[in-house]
Amino acid sequence: MGRKYLKNLDLTLLVTALSIVLFGLVAISSATHATAAQGEDPFGFVKKQVLWVVLGLVVLWAVQSFDYRDLSRYAVWLYVANLIMLAGVLLVGSTRLGAQRWFALGPFMLQPSEFSKVIMIVTLASLLAKREGQLLRLRDLLLPMAFTAAPMLLILKQPDLGTALVLTAILLGMLYMAGARPSHLAGLVLTGLVVIGGALWAHVRYGTWIPLKEYQVVRLLIFLDPWQDWQGAGYHVIQSQIAIGSGGPWGRGLYNGSQNQLNFLPEQHTDFIFSVVGEELGFAGALVLLTLYFILLYRGIRIAAQARDTMGVLIATGVVSMLAFHILVNIGMTVGIMPVTGVPLPLFSYGGSAMLTNMAALGLLLNVYRRQQRIIF
Amino acid sequence: MVRKAVEQRSRVLLVLVGLVFAVLAGRLAQLQLLETERFQTLARENRVRLIPIVAPRGEIFDRQGQKLVGNRPVYTVSLVYLGQRDLHAVVEGLAAILGQSAAEIEAKITERALRLFEPVKIARGVPMEVVTQIEERREELPGVVIDAEPVREYPYGALAAHVLGYVREISGPELAANREKGYRPGDLFGKDGLEKTFEEYLRGKDGAREVEVDALARPVRDLGRRPPQPGNNLVLTLDARVQEAAERALAEAVNAARRAGHRDARGGAVVVEDVRTGGIVAMASYPTYDPTVFTSYLSESQARELFSNSDRLMLNRAIAAGYPPGSTFKMVVAAAGLEAQKIDPEAAVPDPGYFPLGNQTFRDWKPGGHGRVDLRRAIQVSCDVYFWRLGLAVGIEEIARVAREFGLDRATGIELPGETGGVVPTPEYKYALVKKSLDRQYKPKLEEIEARYASLLGQTRDPETRRQLETEKQKEIDRVLARYNSHSWDLQWQTYDTLNTAIGQGYNLYTPLQLANYVAAIANGGYLWKPYLVQRIVGPDGQVVKEFTPQLLARVNVRPETLAVIREGMALVTQGEGTAAGIFWGFPVPVAGKTGTAEVHGKEDHSLFVAFAPADDPQVAVAVVVEHAGHGSAVAAPVAREVLKAYFGLE
After folding, report:
1. How far apart are the CA of B142 and the nearest CA of chain A, in angstroms?
2. In whole angstroms, what is the distance from residue A209 CA to residue A198 CA?
């Protein structure tokens, strides 16, 4: 280790990520200490999250330590393992909140769909790297699409719409960097949006069949007009906007937001953690967090651009796509411009599987960074 | 790998990411910088609840300052809207604990659907066990709030229930009628008696507590408080001691009469009035009810028992039931005779015990008659023959005029809801009454004929048959009309109607309050006071809000000498041969009175007694009616004696 090791480490990325994690711990403590029941440790959630962070750092170190290029050899196995894991959770997984997403591992609940995101990034990168320059025709895109569709369908079956959409975002970002035509991709996205939008519209208007449960349809559409069902489906969305809006420019003070502390905010330590930041730290606090995320993504894109080989480019792109999509959908949901899909805020929301996944993803970025070609002029 | 392409594409990616962040930051700026105020208001509405503090109603005191109606705190259970979905489960749980139906509770919630942030009152007067049960199941019952709230308390129990009235939750129509006065659903509202009449004075002004609540509507801390303002107190003319005596004596008289075989003796009334002011000292109606039942949840069967009971518990017989006055009416006839100068009060006439009218003979209540009687003695022994003769001599118009002078034709205007006026018989009254019943009897017959022939005529077109049918129809109609017209004699006022009226039978109908007020006017020399119950309205701070002084309805247009003679006759009733002499034998205060026995068609007679005392310096008038209890002196007079005993503090 020593100097050389540090020199090959993207310190900016790591420090930014750790800042986000620390910020998250503060937000979690505010979101959970007031609602902890009598006799419960008010910092129980924070302590558990710290444990996940430490575990995550171990994973990060492990992931960045070997050469990512070796991974393409195991890509097939990884892919198959992923499918088995996802099928397994459908067979023997635990059900919570109406979805079969978890493996119970002692006191912990592991969510394989989280890990599948990182696995997809690696395996898809390996697949596309071999087809560099051969993605110019529309039909060339069929294989990577099918390749992604298999795990995606299993995830949809749970059902976990959010994660399935994340895979789509990863696929699109990586195809673009791998050289697919932007017009093809834009066409695909547009077609997808039209088909999904049309299906939803027809379903709401004429009751046609749709491969979604009714509550998912309601959740998807409620953000358009949450007040029409402000006691029911719109409740989360409205309370979140009230929290953020009432925070004003400077916030109501840490540990002092009534929406958070009096529990009007739902899921305030997981999916709606950003609303706590918005309420208690205001526009200023929210902007700090957004800036940290932007630095993170900027570093990610830089790593992609300077990667040694195509696989490196694609892995970094996959990670950036994943994180960017998470941030957009999660924060967008809390401010009411995105549907409620249950996507957590990366490195910030309370939750072990997501923390491990995101740490692994950062590990991949660092891995690619370490092995980039130093061009010496 | 084409480095250049990768770099170019990564720049596009960076722009895209930048765009995402710009959109998010823009939206945040909109919510947090531009719409802060709106969202801060919404956040405040979320967490701050105004919980009303119910103001205690004004209390009610008797003339001695004894508290008749007070307040005591009870537990109430309310439900606060939570913005949550599983309200139904909470309602079900609550219904099980409270023993109400879930539908009933849900109806209360829907009623208030437009005022979501105010708690909905589900039950009042909840016992401690139930409160404990709810507290134990707090977690399953989010939004259920237990508060203390004042409800009516009656230190004397059922005493004067009909006068005081009762309060209950305001009804839909009452709410609609009083919306601008600031009533809310669930508020208490005076439903009867003084509680109803003086609602606007008795009602206090609710205060409020501003409380910060969490998402489950559990209070977290108090933010502020506006204290409630109690209502105004009433000070009555009623005397609790006399009222108690009246109610006890009345109940005993009714029950004793029933035990003695008078099966229909189930009710009665007593009114005690100050002849110098019109102030009501006691007003009793039997059977009665305990207004305390209205302070807690009333089940369907309890409510039915109260409101549709065959004995009509809720009816204030003293003001809302008309009774034939029987011989207590004779003073009216005596006054009419003296005013018309048809008699010399000193002249005695022989009473053979009967009175011939055409081929009929009217018999006095006492076989063989009372010997020679003058006016005073006629009142003393209640001689029917004397008053028959007198009645015929003065005529119905004059009798009716004097009855009206004493206010017997109209409600007195006492400050109680539901008072009815009396019926002073006149030829016009009889005509209208009989005609109404004849019409009721004959109209269906005529209609039936019309209908029958209409269908018969509809079946044929043959002009010959039709003509025949028309003739038959006309014949039938004529036959019915002939029978109808044969009753014309019944429509006319007949001599025997005058005779009946003269002894207080026939169409006479007066409330006990009217009788008391009429006797008071005799006693005080012709002042017809407006009976009243409330002397003073006093604010919670002790300041007099309103003072009520005696109000003269009219001077009775009868000469003082006339009234003096009648008073002398009434004074004799409790002496010597008087009809109530035995009952008042040895009574230390001279009492002037008059017994009455009112015949009721198909049932036993009502027993009546009216009196004033002291006979020589009248202070109070008393009227007693005991339904279907037989002879006046036997049942009603002892009630009056007990009342006067209490009034004069004898024992």
Report:
1. 13
2. 12
- Measured between alpha carbons, how far is B611 from B615 in angstroms, rounded to an integer? 9
What pLDDT score does A36 carry? 65
CA distance B318 to A260: 64
Nearest CA in chain B to A239: B43
Which residues of B fall within a CB distance of 8 Å from A327? 20, 24
CA of A187 vs chain B CAs: smallest distance (Å):
17
Length of chain A: 377
Distance (Å, whole) CA B486 – CA B442: 12
Closest CA to A350 of A277, A268, A280, A285: A268
What are the extents of the domains in chain A?
3-370
Whether A335 sits inside 8 A of B28 (CB atoms) is yes
Integer-rounded Cα radius of gyration of chain A = 21
Mean pLDDT (chain B) is 89
Q: Are residues B325 and B206 in the same domain?
A: no
Please name which of B400, B371, B403 lies closest in space to residue B385, comparing C-alpha atoms. Answer: B371
Interface test with A, best of B4, B13, B33, B138 (most A CBs within 10 A): B13
What's the gap in Å between the CA of B77 and the closest CA on chain A?
Answer: 23
Specify if B260 maps to a domain.
no
Task: Specify the amino acid at residue B23.
Answer: V
Cis peptide before B228 (omega within 30 of 0): no
A–B interface: beta-carbon pairs under 8 A = 136
Residue of chain A nearest B87, judged by CA positions: A231
Q: Which residues pair with B145 in a beta bridge?
A: B78
> Is residue B538 within 8 Å of B230, Cβ to Cβ?
no
- Give the pair of three-digit tokens for residue B191: 């439903």
Query: Domain range for residue B189?
Result: 48-230
Question: What tokens does A104 get?
Answer: 């119970």
B627 & B608 share domain: yes
Give the tokens for residue B253: 């008289």
Q: Is residue B287 part of a domain?
A: no
Q: Give the pLDDT band (50/70/90) at residue A228.
A: confident
Q: What is the pLDDT of residues B208-236, one digit of tens each?
A: 888 887 776 667 778 888 889 999 999 99
Residue B374 zone, left/alpha/beta (φ > 0; ψ -120 to 50; rest): beta
pLDDT for residue A377: 45
Asked if B28 has any chain A CB less than 8 Å from its own CB, the reply is yes
Which residues of chain B fall short of a pLDDT of 50? 114
Q: Is the pLDDT of residue A376 over 50?
A: no
Could you tell me if residue B2 is inside a domain?
Answer: no
Chain B interface test: which of A246, A311, A345, A369 (most B C-beta within 10 Å): A246
Determine, yes or no, domain membership for B295.
no
> At A234, which amino acid appears?
G
Say yes or no for a CB contact (<8 Å) between A231 and B83: yes
